[in-house]
Design a protein that fits this description.
Blueprint (H helix, E strand, L loop, with lengths): L19 E5 L3 H28 L8 H29 L1 E5 L2 E9 L2 E8 L3 E7 L3 H6 L1 E8 L5 E8 L1 H13 L14
Antiparallel strand pairs: 1-2, 2-3, 3-4, 5-6, 6-7
Length: about 190
């Protein structure tokens, strides 16, 4: 049995001398917006209970009570499942910035995960974008990393403090030895 060293093995494929500089998840407001939508479905459950008690009390009597209870429990089960899926999708959608590369792990659904990596030497440009009042007040937005490869760019969706992330990536690129940097890369 292999024991995982939590100081080193944060993600699969991490190199021996690779140091993690930053681990990112989407801003908490992203989860909160989805949670508010989930609360609307909880309100539907509460509202339907109230409406049935007021206007259809016959559903609470035999022989209908069993069907009503079954439908209510199935709906409640899907509510709990929906909340768990929301949390898992939020928690497993992660970006990792190391001293050698950028790793973008996108959890598209419960059974679909995309892992992309970009070596810092292939970076051509990094841009941060904050768009809107809420994003400006809470300081979250998108970070675009332009590459020289077949993938045109990496996009970190709605991450906290995008300007600091942009600066970190550019600083890490500048710390690379000149012989490793891409010839067509960034020049200041």
């Amino acid at each position: 049995m292999k024991w995982i060293n939590l100081q080193k093995d944060i993600f699969p494929g991490q190199q021996e001398d690779e140091k993690i500089c930053m681990v990112l998840r989407p801003h908490w407001m992203v989860f909160l917006m989805k949670f508010i939508i989930w609360l609307a479905f909880v309100a539907i459950l509460i509202g339907s209970d109230w409406a049935i008690n007021q206007y259809l009390p016959v559903l609470k009597t035999s022989p209908y009570v069993d069907y009503y209870t079954l439908a209510r429990n199935v709906y409640l089960m899907f509510l709990v499942l929906g909340l768990l899926i929301l949390w898992i999708m939020y928690y497993l959608d992660i970006q990792i910035i190391t001293n050698e590369r950028v790793v973008d792990i996108i959890q598209g659904s419960l059974l679909h995960r995309t892992v992309s990596e970009l070596h810092l030497s292939r970076i051509e440009d990094v841009t941060s974008e904050v768009d809107g009042v809420l994003e400006t007040l809470l300081d979250y937005g998108d970070v675009y990393i332009q590459t020289a490869g077949t993938t045109e760019h990496f996009k970190f969706d709605r991450v906290p403090n995008p300007a600091a992330i942009e600066k970190l990536i550019l600083d890490l690129y500048e710390q690379l030895p000149d012989n490793i940097k891409l010839k067509a890369g960034m020049e200041k």
